[in-house]
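How it folds
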Amino acid sequence: SSAAMASASVPAPWDLTHSLAPYLDRHLVFPLLEFIQALAIYPDSDLLEAKISLLSQTNMVDFAMDIYKHLHSKGGGSDVVPAQMKERRLVVVTELKTLKQAASRVVEFLSDPERVKALRSSGTDRDATLAFLQTEHGIGSEDVEALYKYAKFQYECGNYSVAAEFLYFYRTIARDAEKSFKALWGKFAAEILMQNWGEAMEDLMRLKDVIDATHFPSAVEQLQQRTWLAHWSLFVFFNHENGRNAILDLFLNERYLNTIQTNARHLLRYLAAAALCNRRRRALIPAVVNAVAQETADALAASGEEESTKQDPICAFLEALYVRHDLEEAQATLAACDAVLASDFFLVGLRQEFAENSRMYIFESYCRVHKTIDLSEFAGTLGMGVDEAERWILEMIRSDRISARLDAERGVVVMASPYPTPMDRIVERVKGLHQRTEAIAAAVHSRGYAVA
C-alpha cells in the first residue's frame, strides 16, 4: 500500500494518508484514496494510478479494469485494458472455483442456518466440535484449512460478508493458533469495510487481548502488531458510538502510548482531537497535553528549532492553550485546525464539534484570568463578530455551561463565580485535609482511644 501511495505526488499540507497507508491493509487504504480524490488535493490521474497499483495486489480485477478504462480511454472501450489484466482475471476466476470446490463440504454445512445455529449453541469445545463435524458431516481438518484459504481469497475479491462469516467459523474450530490470529485480523478488516462497527469493536478488543497475551519472537514484532492495531482502530473509534471514549482508553494506555511515541507520532493528532471533542473525559486532557508536549520536545531535540513550524495544528492548539497559555496563539491556529479536519478522512465529521469545543476551552481559559470580560475584545480573541459572540455567550449561559451574566449596556460579561486560581485550589485542598483530620480524630476519640 505504501508503494501505491508513492505515485500520488507530494503530500498536501497536513495530509496523513502517506503516513497511515503503510500500516493499513490495502483494502483499508482504498476508502482514504476515495476521500482525498473528492477533495481534489492531488492530481486526479495520480490518484487513479495509485488505485490501480493498489488493486493490482488484490483479486478485485474488474474494479481495476474499470479504473484503467476511465484513466486511459475517453470512450471506455475494453480494447484499452492491458492483456495482463484480462489474463489475471481468468486466473482469479479459475482459482476461485478451485478453492470453492476444495472447501465445498464446509461451505455446504455453513449454508444451513439451522445446523450452524445448533452447533454454536451446543457449547462443545474445539476438539468435540471437530469430532462431530468429522463423524456427522465428513468434514476433516483439511476441509477446515481449505475454508481458510477460500475465505482469504474471497476477502481479496472484495466479498467481505462471505469472508467475515467463513473466518469467524474458522476461528471457532481451528487448531492452528497463528492462522487463527491472522483470521481475526482478516475478519476485523472485513467488518470495518462493511461498516459493522459493533462487530468491529469486539474484534478490536479481541486483537488487543491476543497481542498483549502472546509471546512474540521479539519485542519489535509485538510493537509492530500494536502499531497496526492503533492505525486500523481509527476506523472504529471515529464511527462507533463509544469510539471517542475507547480511543482515549487505548491510546493513553502505557503500552500503546509508547507505541505511538516510538512508531507512529502522527497518531497524536487523533488522540488530541478525540480529547478535545469529549467533554465528559476532559479530565484526560492534561495527559494528552503531556504526550503532545513530549513529542514536541523530542522533535526539537532531534531536528532543531525549525521543526516547531511543522507541528500538527491540532496538537499546536493544545500546546498554545494548555502549555504556553497563549490565547491569541490558540485562536490563531483554529483556521488551520479546521482545514485539517476538513481534509482528514477520520476527523471530517468532528468539524462543528471541534469548533464549538475549542471556543469553549479558550473562553474557559479567558475566564480564569478575567472577572469582567469586554465583549468586543473577547469577540476578537475568538475571531467572531460582536453579535455572534454575544449570541454564543448567551447560549452558554442558558445551557448552564458557564455561570455569568451579560451586561448589554456596558458590553461586558460578568463572571458570577470566577474560576479558582491554583493558590485557591491549594487552600481548598488544605482545608479539606484539615476537616478530614478532625473528623478522624473525633471518630477515634469516640471509641475511647487517646488522641495526642
The mean pLDDT is 85. The beta strands are 372-374, 404-407, 412-415.
